[in-house]
Specification:
Distance between the termini: 33 Å
Low-confidence stretches: none
Strand content: 5-15%
Number of domains: 2
Length: about 200
């Protein structure tokens, strides 16, 4: 079964695909794993601004949560917070991955059998050890961030810029424009507020 397919595309179930998107496999060497680097989304500076704000907001409420947000400011810290060595330079966003069964089956099985989940959703389930092992084996091929546009971070970024919450119309426009200018829209972290966005998502799906 290993050699039946040259490529496997992993997509989280909470992703909407823009029909005008190019092939996510384009330019990804067969021996590499194509994935986005969350540390650079929406930009390196934007990422830092978002997580600094989240950390500051949490400090007076829950110091443990503040520590988790702080770890996102440095990929090495993000992995170390899980108990991994502080060697990684990227945060591999595992919601979208371009894989080759012939080259990457052993890596995936190794992560599955070698690591236990220490903290569930707050610690990203399997994403941190998978990110670490991908980089340890030097098989990461960073793909365009438009293949994994994290809507929740863009919502937070807009709120920071406006210094207030978004109105329903503003949120709807952000959902629409984000979908139009990206390839894959990722709804990670939004399950508790999906009722708010469902009408807009149904229109663009």
């Amino acid at each position: 079964m290993t050699g039946r397919y040259d490529r496997v595309i992993w997509l989280d179930s909470d992703i909407l695909i823009n029909g005008a998107s190019p092939a996510v496999t384009e330019g990804v060497p067969i021996e590499k794993i194509g994935a986005t680097d969350e540390f650079t989304f929406p930009t390196v500076e934007g990422h830092r601004r978002i997580y600094t704000q989240l950390m500051q907001d949490a400090q007076s409420v829950n110091s443990a949560t503040a520590g988790i947000w702080q770890s996102y400011l440095n990929p090495a810290d993000w992995h170390a917070d899980w108990g991994l060595p502080r060697r990684a330079r990227s945060i591999v966003q595992a919601g979208v991955m371009v894989l080759s069964p012939n080259h990457h089956r052993e890596l995936l099985e190794h992560v599955y059998h070698s690591y236990e989940d220490p903290g569930g959703e707050a610690m990203n389930f399997e994403m941190r050890p998978l990110s670490f092992e991908i980089q340890e084996r030097n098989v990461l091929h960073v793909i365009d961030n438009r293949f994994n546009a994290l809507l929740i971070l863009l919502l937070i970024q807009s709120q920071i810029q406006l210094q207030r919450g978004l109105t329903q119309a503003e949120a709807a426009e952000l959902v629409r424009s984000t979908f139009e200018r990206n390839y894959f829209l990722h709804l990670a972290g939004l399950k508790t507020s999906m009722d708010e966005f469902l009408p807009q998502l149904l229109q663009i799906a």
